[in-house]
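A.,

Following up on our hallway conversation. Structure tokens first:
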């Protein structure tokens, strides 16, 4: 049987495809195969205690189906990044849970704890060799295939396909496939957050410390995107990143990024997934200057630390005067997950000439109109420490960069107060002295 015949033999309706999932199964998913999610939702009465897992959360139509109250008792869902699961506090959703771990460990979690019975994937059209490209936002979906899970694929002719040596499945590995295009309002967003004057000020402080020839990783948020925009006058930059955001693509298009200096995969921009916007799709599709690699390799601190002049820039929510950083959960609210921040903080910090920056506004105004400092004596009760004080190198605000690495506790406190909002510096100094920190 040739590849085309094999493809036709496995093509079926969404209802028939999801019928392979049985009560009690563990299911991994990625890439937003929304038509399969809808079919699973419509078949929920025939299912009990199905546990679904993913690297990323659900939003749009995906969330409407998988996180629906009607799914309680039938299908539950757990992911690492809750930010995409709800625009408000996600915890009221009874069938939603979180997997608090770094992205570099996600594939190990799948192998040792989840051990999926089935995997739901999005894929592009099959190529001449019988391979189906899993697109750009797969989220470790190749791992369940290697473990022998039942493979159910939604083949979407509109899916963006990027060069990869890992995130693809062969038609011989597929158990069922459905040809369908996703609704236009579903699936993950892209492009990164916009940035304003404060983000530009923070970025300017970081940019002056980045050398030509550096390899860059930018995380989510306005400040990393502003940093990308401000790197336009640098030379011979490289990319080794968890995700390639749009500002990095702009640097590739302008020639600022040529990957000529980095020792790992010289000449190629490497990432675990893609976070650009639709206007960049034509540039990256089938572009040999990109390569999506296995995420556990891309994010592995032992890999990252092999890259000289590695620079990591990520956003954070708050920091205390000892240098502990919260990036995912302030008090008992929740805005995301660990992601790859700690992976790249550890890797870049240990790289020869490496630098790692955690960036935030110095203060924020609440909905009630109260202005509060984001640098505080202690983090608010219930906050999750994403990056421990011992790993933090630089914290950047619009008032400068606080150097914490190799600094004493008193020096750390003084340096952080120096980049706090001026309105709060006296009170922070008083609190620090009152508790013996200064």
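Then the amino acids I'd put at each of the 438 positions:
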């Amino acid at each position: 049987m040739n590849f085309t015949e094999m493809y036709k033999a496995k093509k079926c309706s969404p209802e028939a495809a999801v019928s392979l999932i049985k009560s009690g199964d563990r299911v991994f998913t990625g890439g937003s195969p929304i038509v399969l999610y809808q079919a699973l939702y419509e078949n929920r009465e025939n299912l009990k205690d199905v546990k679904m897992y993913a690297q990323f959360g659900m939003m749009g139509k995906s969330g409407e189906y998988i996180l629906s109250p009607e799914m309680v008792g039938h299908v539950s869902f757990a992911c690492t990044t809750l930010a995409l699961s709800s625009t408000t506090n996600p915890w009221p959703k009874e069938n939603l849970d979180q997997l608090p771990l770094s992205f570099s460990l996600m594939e190990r979690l799948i192998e040792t704890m989840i051990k999926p019975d089935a995997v739901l994937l999005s894929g592009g059209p099959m190529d001449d060799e019988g391979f189906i490209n899993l697109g750009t936002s797969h989220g470790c979906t190749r791992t369940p295939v290697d473990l022998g899970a039942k493979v159910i694929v939604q083949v979407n002719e509109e899916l963006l396909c990027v060069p990869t040596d890992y995130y693809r499945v062969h038609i011989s590995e597929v158990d069922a496939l459905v040809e369908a295009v996703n609704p236009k309002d579903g699936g993950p967003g892209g492009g990164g957050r916009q940035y304003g004057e404060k983000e530009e000020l923070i970025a300017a402080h970081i940019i002056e410390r980045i050398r030509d020839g550096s390899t860059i990783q930018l995380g989510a948020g306005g400040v990393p995107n502003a940093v990308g925009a401000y790197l336009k006058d640098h030379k011979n930059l490289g990319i080794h990143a968890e995700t390639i955001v749009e500002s990095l693509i702009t640097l590739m298009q302008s020639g600022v990024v040529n990957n000529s200096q980095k020792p790992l995969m010289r000449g190629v921009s490497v990432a675990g997934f893609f976070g650009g916007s639709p206007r960049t799709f034509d540039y990256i599709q089938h572009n040999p200057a990109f390569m999506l690699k296995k995420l556990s390799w891309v994010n592995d601190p032992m890999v990252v630390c092999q890259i000289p002049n590695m620079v990591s820039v990520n956003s954070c929510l708050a920091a205390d005067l000892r240098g502990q950083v919260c990036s995912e959960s302030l008090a008992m609210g929740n805005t995301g997950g660990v992601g790859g921040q700690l992976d790249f903080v550890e890797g870049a910090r240990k790289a020869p000439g490496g630098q790692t920056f955690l960036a935030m506004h110095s203060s924020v105004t609440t909905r009630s109109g109260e202005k509060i400092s984001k640098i505080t004596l202690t983090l608010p009760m219930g906050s999750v420490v994403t990056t421990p004080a011992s790993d933090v190198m630089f914290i950047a605000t619009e008032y400068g960069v606080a150097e914490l690495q190799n600094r004493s506790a008193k020096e750390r406190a003084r340096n952080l107060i120096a980049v706090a909002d001026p309105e709060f510096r006296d009170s922070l100094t008083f609190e620090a002295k009152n508790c013996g920190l200064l």
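The mean pLDDT is 91. Curious whether your intuition agrees with the design.

B.
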